[in-house]
Amino acid sequence: MMGLLDWMQSKAIVITTFGSFGDLHPYLVIALGLIGRGHRVIIATCEAYRAKVESEGIEFHAVRPNISPDDHEAIRLAMDAKKGSEYVLRHMLLPHLRNSYGDLTEAVAGADLLVTHPIAYAGPLVAEKTGIPWVSSVLAPISFLSACDPSVLSPAPWLATLGRFLPAINRSICALGKRITIPWAEPVQQLRRDIGLPPGANPIFEGQHSPDLVLALFSKLLAAPQPDWPPNTHVTGFAFYDRLEKHQGLSPELARFLDSGPAPIVFTLGSSAVMDARDFYRQSAVAAVQLGLRAVLLIGRDPANIPASPLPPGVIAAEYAPYSEIFPRAAAIVHQGGAGTTAQALRAGRPMLVVPFAHDQPDNAARVERLGVARQVSRRAYRADRVASQLRKLLDSPSYTARSAEVGRQIQSEDGVSTACDLIEQRLVETGVATISDGNL
């Protein structure tokens, strides 16, 4: 498919990311969009994702650390509400920063543009050192830590209430958060010194954003641009991709179940929190029985989530199902609030109950609650009686149903992939890296 710059000469674009499937999938579909416009795209990330990337016909370059999506203990620590973000940075990523920098430097050799994920901390250093044009991106509003639009911080969610009513307090909270993370980011500052770069902004906050173009890969319904966002930020809409394997759809068993009765409640924990589910699925099944409703439990690949005893009638467990296919067939969706899962639930137009674990999830939960499409329950309070009560309030309220459908229609009208690709191409032209062939536009 041709973009706004239909006659642009083909260019080489490197996209670097780290994290769960939710951190990979938006970039996979943007890469496919750019390839469809004639560009060469390389995804630079952990070795564990090589097969998935290459199965889509996208070039791959390994960047350390090789974080395994099946490392249950690491994911459990990463999903801790209070210490999870610190663990990810100080134990999973930044100890390997020099390796990441070396690997990514190799990946961009001969490339025309670099696109970075928020926690690909080597990316800004590589861009500054090599001079390659750089586009940064964020997947959730919390990456901007706006004093004008208070975020819900996982270690202290109650602070958001103070900040919303007292903006001066929110500015102080943001400043405190940035000061606390200064020691976390010392490996970045040390590497800057070692490679001859001057001291830079806090890489966890301002330093992650390109001075030229920031792609906010979410809908304006989730967060509208704020005065203290980077001035070069463009909100694109969500970039949707949800295949665990290429061409994968609903299993025959799950398709038969969906066809055999009323719309079920779908319970899922995405691709990371699912590794720390504990009793989530047992409580979910009991809640469905209490409501007298059918349920689908998407339990992932962790053997600990396999039901220890036969499930009650009307409840089925499946390892995986594409959200784009199962969410529209749900009566309601219960999920952890990850950016990708939240996006799919919004697009499906179904009310949702959010059970946030860590990172951006509490903030995403608060935003969809304010949209009028969701309720939430804390992870510690996730018990069948409470879950059933919250779901009943969702399902018995015409306002939740109507508002969810309205939001779904608006999300469906957005095209985050095309918008992101247009902006990337425009940036290539602005830098002088690309020209428009034959004067055609």
Main sheet record: 7 strands, parallel
User: What's the rounded overall pLDDT mean?
Assistant: 93
Q: What is the CA-based Rg, rounded?
A: 22 Å
- The strands making up the biggest β-sheet line up spatially as 3-2-1-4-5-6-7
CATH topology of the largest domain: Rossmann fold
Strand content: 5-15%
Terminus-to-terminus distance: 15 Å
The percent of residues in helical segments reads 40-55%
Low-confidence stretches: 1-5
What does this structure look like?
The protein is of the alpha/beta class and 441 residues long. The chain has 2 domains: 12-238 and 415-439, Rossmann fold (3-Layer(aba) Sandwich), CATH 3.40.50.2000; 252-413, Glycogen Phosphorylase B (Rossmann fold, 3-Layer(aba) Sandwich). The chain contains 17 helices and 13 strands. The chain has a 7-stranded parallel beta sheet with strand order 3-2-1-4-5-6-7, sandwiched between helices. α14 links the parallel β12 and β13 (374-376). α13 (339-348) crosses α16 (398-413). The longest helix has 16 residues, at 21-36. It starts with 11 loop residues before the first strand and ends in an 11-residue tail after the last helix. Residues 1-5 have low confidence and may be disordered.
